[in-house]
Each structure stands twice: as structure tokens, then as C-alpha cells.
Batch of 2 targets.
Target 1
Amino acid sequence: MILALSHARHGGRLAVTHELEDGRALVFELLDEPPPGALAAARVELDPERAWLARLDRVDFPPGGVAYRHVHPGPGIRYLASGELTLEREGGARAYRAGEAWFEDADDPVTATAGPEGAAFLRLLLLPAEWAGKRTIRYLDPADEAKPKLQRATILREEPLRL
């Protein structure tokens, strides 16, 4: 199945909508095919024998804030709502600006650094149900656990996912 993000609904099995400050809607969906005009779309494989949930949250970074090299237990699409955020991955680094979106798979190592004005993104994660209400970030270097965490994640919505 395809996890997609666009500004319009396309009739997916899951549709989570979030209204932006400018009145436009973000629609995260699970579909059979990528929709035309998608901001981001990626194929995801979820074990149908497990219980899953969909979590919409917002992550805010202060100016220059860093999320040290980390992973999450499920795949998700992120949409940068404000500021600039540079992601370092195995293939290199890329700076994202407000209005851009990207996909991170489960256990996909990434380091995120906010620009001089800070950054905020919205994220839809597909998570094993046992993660309901829990923090999902796992730092890959144990020394990073002790460093100050300036980014703040706020869960906006969580609901069971029916495959």
C-alpha cells in the first residue's frame, strides 16, 4: 500500500486531515496507487498480523535545534510547516523549506537540524499499537540520550489503523 500526502482526499482506506494556518488541508492517506499531485508518497509494508495505529503529531524545533541521529519504529510522512530543516541520511544531506514533504521508513537513521529561525513539521506515523501515547524516538548513539532535547513533539491525534 502507498502512504501519501496531498492537499485533497483521494478515497484511501485511511484519511487523516489537518488544516493548516492558511486554510489549506493536508491529507495523509493509505492508497493502492500514488495520487496525482502528491506532496510525498511511498510504498509501506505493514504486517497484517499486528495491530497498528496512525499518529498525527507536530514537532517544533528552536533555532539551531538538533534531533541527534535517531530512528522511529514505524514509517511516516513529514510536512515542514515552517522554517528550514536539514536532514542528514546515509545518502547525504538535504535542506527542506516550509511546504516541502518527505518520507522516513521505520528504522531509517536520520539527524535533523533546524535553521536559524527554527522549524516545525507535521508528521503522520504508522506505528505498532503498543506505541500508543509513547515517545517513539530512539537515539542510535547512547551518549545522545543524555544531551538536551530541545525539539518538542505534540501528539495531535491517534487512532487505530485497520488494514
Note: The chain has a mean pLDDT of 95.
Target 2
Amino acid sequence: MRAVGVTTFGGPEALHMVDVPAEPLGPGQVRLRVHAAAVNPTDTQYRAGAYAAYYPDESPPWIPGMDVAGVVTELSPGVDHLTVGDLVMGLVVPQGAYREDKVLPADSVVRVPAGADAVAASTLPMNGLTARLALDKMALKPGQVIAVTGAAGAFGGYVVQLAKADGLTVIADAADKDVELVHELGADLVVPRGDDVATRIREKFPDGVAGLADGALLDALALPAVADGGAVATVRNYRGPDERGLRYFPTLVADMDKNRSALDRLRQQAEDGTLTLRVAATFPAERATEAHQLLEKGGIRGRVVLTF
């Protein structure tokens, strides 16, 4: 089976096509013929070896990727929410989506949104579930204010849209070129992005906001925007200082592995227009190096996707 992986951790040039054996199909699992795999920042870290210590028993080739979409080719007995031939999307934990044949837990897989192809659908599971988890952990009430940094990105964009669907007021940051996009995603107020974003947010909400989803990884720089006792959701396991009663919620998408109901809810929200599936560029799998190089340049709006 063809896959994209690394045999030595390194930069984008370390990626190359590799041959891997077919994975066995076990109880409660589904086999996909992969058509698309989204490229995320966590994939680039995995490729570089940042997570090697967490998985000491893994051996090369190491296959990145957490988002996948394709066609069901085989099902374990008892899997009844899918049928062979369905076009589906799924979350791959911890990594391993960049391959043309993939076995996943059936509860990590749902049908793609109606009207979406595999490329678009592959952009939803990881970032959408991470955004949903961040909001669930903060548990803000309708009418409260949430600030979103990195709002033009994939995670931040989904937080904006899901927060609006939850009845929250959203203040978000954006570069000049992204202001219109972030408003279109549903932000009520948009402030300039940058290290002084907390000051900009406090100008709009002097008492601070109830919650912060820090997609821009500003960490301590963004904390002054949050009211005393407020909630902070982070995506790189950041836990800030114990001050002002701030509550920190490091958000790891692995906690949503096999949460089929949450993934299916995202599917429904993409179908009804609550969520927007954004594809920035596509590359055939053989050009994965270029895909990673493009992502690492920054400024991507939407997801880069590999096709098989």
C-alpha cells in the first residue's frame, strides 16, 4: 500500500512515498480507500519528531496525518451506521492518515456532509472536533463573550462558527486582509491581530471576556483579555500562571477519539451551513513535501489537502 511518511525525522524534504502493509481489520473497525488527507500543523511536528518520545514503540516509516476522507471498502460485523461504498470522513489518532488504505475504529468515522467531496470533508474532523472540545470545556453560557485568536485559521474559524451557533458573542482577531473573512465566519467584532490583542479586546470589553480560545498560541500575551475567573482554552497544552482565578483548559483532540455523535453533529452543521469547509490548496500525495512547505510558510486560510 502506498503511503507518505518519513524514515528519518526532519523537515518537509524528509517526506517521501513508502510501501506499507495493509492494516488488519479488527472488531468494531472500518477500512477506507483514502481519497484525501488534510495537512495540519500537528502533522509537521510529528514529521519533525516532536512526538517521538510519546510513542517509543513505533518504528519507521512514520506516517503523519489526523484527518482522512474516503470510501468504505470493508466493515467489521456489527458496524451498522455505515455501508460499503459510503463516502466518509474520520479522525486518525494519534497519526497515520497519509496512506491510501486506512483502518479506523468505526466510531471515529461518519458519512461526509451532503454535497461535500472527500477533499472538503477531510478538513473537518480534527479541527472541528478540537473547536467543539474547547467550547465544551469552557462551558460558556449563551450571551457570554468569547475571544478567539487565530480566527482566520482552521481551528479558530470553527470556534467562531460553533460559538455563534451556541449563542455566544464573539470578538476575534484578524490581519487586515482577513477582516472580511472573519466577519463572514460570524464574528461580532474584529480587532487587529498582534501581541497587543488583549489591549484591543479590553478596549471593547473593559471588564474582560468570559472565555478565550487561543488559536494563535499567544499564551500569556492574550491572558489579560480574560475577566477574573474566566476560561482559557489552549491547543498546545499551555497552562498559564495561577492568577486572577483563571481556569485553563488544554484541549487535545485525542479526547474526542471515537466520539461519533460529536463528529456526526459537525457533519450536520456543515450540511446546514453552520460550518464552512475551507480548502486552501490540494496536492497529490507524491508532492507532500510541497504541501508541508506551503503550510509552514504561514498565512494559509483553510487547509492544504493531499489526494490519493
Note: The longest strand covers residues 29-39.
